[in-house]
Amino acid sequence: MLLLFNNKNKIGDRVKCPFCLKTETKVLDSRLTSTQDSVRRRRECPGCLKRFTTYERIEDTNISVIKKNNVIQQFERKKLITGMLKACEKRPVKREKIEQSVDEIESELRKKGKTEITSRKIGEMVIDKLLSLDPVAYVRFASVYRRFTDVSQFAKEVKKINQKK
């Protein structure tokens, strides 16, 4: 189980076990993520003996997303993870790889130093990551994101993938 710290699962400096809700947990392993902007901790609950993973990350710059209809919303990494999980459903892609891809996207956005970015740009970043993770997931996401209307559009995307190999 993966957890991102929030007020629901953290009490002061303690993390609640997501299974039995005890406030005492033991950190088994702690390391920086590949993007080095968050800390991954593997924990164990001494009460129920279950293990889970938490991530600590700094929330420094608020990024706003400009949607297609010009509505501005706060960037939510959870939405990216959900969309990528749907695209990768029943595919041999581990959740950790998806989390890592989202970390990389978020890191790229923060490095640009912009406080506003279009949803189109984020969508293209997701498509690029999915292409490297799994070609089927890529086509699934692209079909929804680019609003395919017929089979020829699917065929065109598959042809592009095969040409890149």
Keywords:
single chain; alpha/beta; 5 helices
Structural class: alpha/beta
Mean pLDDT over the full residue set: 85
Please give the radius of gyration in angstroms: 18 Å
**N/C terminus separation:** 34 Å
Number of spatially distinct domains: 2
Shape: globular
- Widest beta sheet: strand line-up: 1-6-5-4
- Subunit organisation of the chains: single chain
Let me know the number of strands. Answer: 9
Helix content: 40-55%
Please provide the ordered H/E string of secondary-structure elements.
EEEEEEEEHHEHHH
Q: Strand count, sense and closure of the main sheet?
A: 4 strands, mixed
Instruction: Tell me the strand percentage band.
Output: 15-25%
The low-confidence runs, each spanning 5 or more residues with pLDDT under 50, are 1-12
Helix count equals: 5
What can you tell me about this protein's structure?
- With 165 residues, this protein is of the alpha/beta class.
- It folds into two domains: 56 residues; 101 residues.
- Helices cover 42% and strands 22% of the residues.
- Strand 5 and strand 6 form a beta hairpin.
- The longest helix has 18 residues.
- The protein is globular and about 55 Å long.
- The protein starts with a strand and ends with a helix.
Walk me through the topology.
Blueprint: E1 2-4, E2 10-11, E3 14-15, E4 26-32, E5 38-44, E6 51-57, E7 64-66, E8 72-74, H1 77-87, H2 95-112, E9 116-118, H3 119-133, H4 135-145, H5 151-164
Parallel strand pairs: 1-6, 7-9
Antiparallel strand pairs: 2-3, 4-5, 5-6, 7-8
Helix pairs in contact: 1-2, 1-4, 2-3, 3-4, 4-5
